[in-house]
């Protein structure tokens, strides 16, 4: 028996698997191979373009009319290239391809374009042509990615995409100034992924306008929102009061934010996301963190209620808190990351800021049972403030009221043990009251560490809440 005897409907299902389901295929357009096998296969493939999700990929290697002429009328995927020579200079051939891609947006074929990916190998003139060409509706457009240089890209006007994008499913703008994007988003009811990354100052979007736009996105699963500079502070005089009720983003599962904490608080005061399972928040450092809305968002997300362990990672210019689900949970998708960035490199400020984030008003922190504190291998400690060191460590540890196991890398342990040494008898039972085990990795405990930790261990022993100090070998 040969494949020729299979009926048409079975062949179409096999084609579907080859084109749609075989994600390991290295072929750019696998259906091109199928239509060149025989006349029957060619007829079947073109008879079911929607079922087989047929697309024509166009990268500007020749004018778009020449590229599309041999094929039936199918949706077009428009791809620019960010390739350069090893020297970093664009190649003349790549310049021509970029020109052809922009020309495709200006051509009569624009209404067939379903996906657009424009990368940052664009001159000022091309950006201007791109912005002008995109001021009309693209009826088939479902996917749009534009990556640029915010210092070069012109501000996109209100008329971008004709002011409407009802079929758009995924939108990514990286370093693209588009301050009026909330108006466009109000028409994008079908968005599943929204990425606004490296928003320049000229593209500032107020948290109230952003929240209003989110209210129409009932299918939104992924939201990335990142501001390029700390000048993303909302205007205190123009900050409207949050509404009495919050809009619930029922489909949102992933949220990434980078900017100042005032912006995130204003935004989160207007929304809720009970199905959230992946949260990454990067704050530009501020000495007065007050995050009731973030704490509320996390406490309302069911996935985060299973967390019982955390890591604090210290780098030269940032400090990071990572929370994970209960130990032993295999292939769990949930993760929560909070980062605080500090350009000045002062570690005591970063620790103090993280301590404020992890305050007692953050219920999830007070329920964690395991904590690891470690520094990046390349951290230099150059800006360590000795006078404030011990107080900052105690400030960070205080909120972890349910902690049972504390893991410290060697350099960190020297400083934490010095802080614990200074505790009074009463405070020795108040700080980490449920702690059972203190693990030190890297080396055998030194005489300094043993001497520093001994008063704390003795006081806990006398209080009936003993703590065991042991070695620890990190697995990664």
Fold and architecture overview:
- The protein is of the alpha/beta class and 476 residues long.
- It folds into three domains: 1-54, no CATH class; 55-237 and 247-397; 404-476, no CATH class.
- Helices cover 31% and strands 20% of the residues.
- It has 16 helices and 18 strands.
- It has helices spanning 8-21, 30-35, 39-47, 64-68, 92-106, 124-133, 181-185, 207-214, 261-268, 292-300, 347-357, 363-366, 389-397, 410-421, 425-430, 447-462; strands at 56-58, 76-79, 113-118, 143-147, 170-174, 193-199, 222-227, 247-248, 254-259, 271-272, 278-284, 307-314, 318-325, 335-341, 370-375, 405-408, 437-441, 468-472.
- α9 (261-268) crosses α10, α13 (389-397) crosses α14 (410-421) and α14 (410-421) crosses α16 (447-462).
List keywords for this structure.
476 residues; alpha/beta; elongated; single chain; 18 strands; 16-stranded mixed β-sheet
Q: Give the overall shape, derived from the CA principal axes.
A: elongated
Number of domains: 3
Describe the main β-sheet briefly.
16 strands, mixed
State the end-to-end distance.
54 Å
Helix percentage: 25-40%
Contiguous helical run count = 16
Q: What percent of residues are in strands?
A: 15-25%
Strand order of the largest sheet: 1-2-3-4-5-6-7-9-11-14-13-12-15-16-17-18
Pick out the low-confidence regions. none
Tell me the Rg in angstroms.
Answer: 28 Å
Oligomer: single chain
Calculate the mean pLDDT score and round it.
Answer: 85
SS elements, strand count: 18
